[in-house]
Amino acid sequence: MPAGREVATLSLPDGEPAVPEPVGPRTAALAVQGVVKRYGPVTAVDGVSFAVRRGEIFGLLGPNGAGKTTLIRMLTTLTRPTAGELFVGGESVSKNPVAVKKLIGVVPQVNNLERELTGRENLVLHALLHRMPRGDRERRIPELLEYVGLAHRADDRVQDYSGGMARRLLIARALMHRPPILFLDEPTVGLDPQTRRKIWDLIQVMNRDGVTVFLTTHYIEEAESLCHRVGIIDHGKLIALGTPRELKERLGAFCVEFFVGEGTRRVFFPTRQDAKAYASTLTGDITIRRTNLEDVFVELTGREIRGG
Amino acid sequence: MGLVWRRRWWRFLVGGLNRPLIFLALFAWNLKYAAGGVQYLHFLLPGLVVMAAVTASYTDLVNWFTLRRTFYRVLDEYLLAPVSTASLLAGHVLAGGGKGLVVALVVYFGGWAVAGDFSFPLLFAVQLAVVCLLFASLAVVVAMIAGGDRDVLMFTNLVVFPMTFFCGTFFPVERLPGALAKLSWFLPLTAGTYNLRALALTGVGRWDWFGQSLGWLAGFYILAYLLLNWRRQD
Prior knowledge:
heterodimer, A: 33% helix, globular, disordered N terminus, B: mainly alpha, 81% helix
């Protein structure tokens, strides 16, 4: 799907795509229209357009420095775009930032919890900043701590939390005021595989509970296994958009990978049979596997996603 | 900020009292005995109160803002809350100034207990609060401009720290050489120090000095608002 077309397709990961539904800036969970962000001579985001449907898990995939965090900061009112319009929950981010702030929860890439406070106190602080009534706050905090599996450490100081625990508390904090839209900036970066999977489970549970999720990642597996749709961003430009299945099928669902003199070559085929037929003409070490989003990124940019 | 303050109030209080108490011990006690200096002790105490007010209002808030903005990124949590720049600024300045006021009053009443015979009219409390809020506003200004904690340290060492000495705190500004004496009256602290001293020693202050402090407060507060707004929209 080309960037900028106001049509979103919702499908479960690798499931059948649903019927495309029109998504306008006022009806979409998020809409980004021709957004540019420049820092002096550097263009961090370069004319990006897309829309995210309500109830979707949308992933923005790209290497470090691609413009993912800048885009999330613009969507969450923290950075003003140089040009273009952003809408969150139908509200213009530039014209009505306070309304936008009420609709969103944000899990930043870095741990920005108050380290000297306990997990519970961090949630109280967030509730106070969002002017939640005391009764609601007192009901919501134990509920959320249970939800993210931190009830037993609620009264420990955050400085004593592990990275995974801090990340779960950041998620709980972002959900405290019941936002319908949640932004997660690299939610599992720096976490061990087990904790990473726990965070993925949590994101899926939240989405099942009705929260629209917008996440940035440079982990292929995260984008493939979690996201209904993925946008691929590189050098500030959105270079592909669609369901993981669509993006891979555009290339060919199966990949034949083999080594030749100048390095590893990959050739893509729509079916396994086609891939097998091609492989039978080759000699040496040959791998036939399913195409992944890394292949999509490499084909589009000529380099690997982790290479930056 | 109140939640964090509750957790670390004693560290803040000890840190804020440290310097004024050392000066009190060092200068006042020695001069008292060396030069029959009870009068100097009376002169000095309002100066130490001002020093405590400036240090406690400014230092903690400037570090709070700078580190939370540039290093811990905690400020983002405040900026993401649906609160206006005006309330964000008011909350921080009131909290910073409030903490400064507590420390300054502890120094004042501590000194009173030692030296005795001071006044505490309402205007003294108001003037002191204005000084505290003024320097809390300056803290926000500096934190919004500074690129990091080193910039803050440089500004504090070059501007704020000398100001606590040369604005009539330890000796009358008239004793400064020539133009420096006049220049001192164009600094934000001198009028406040003189008014606090007059109020503490005679119970009567001067409205022009109070007005001058209030003007500085208004100026720094507006500047802090503009800079915080600029940072929010950066």
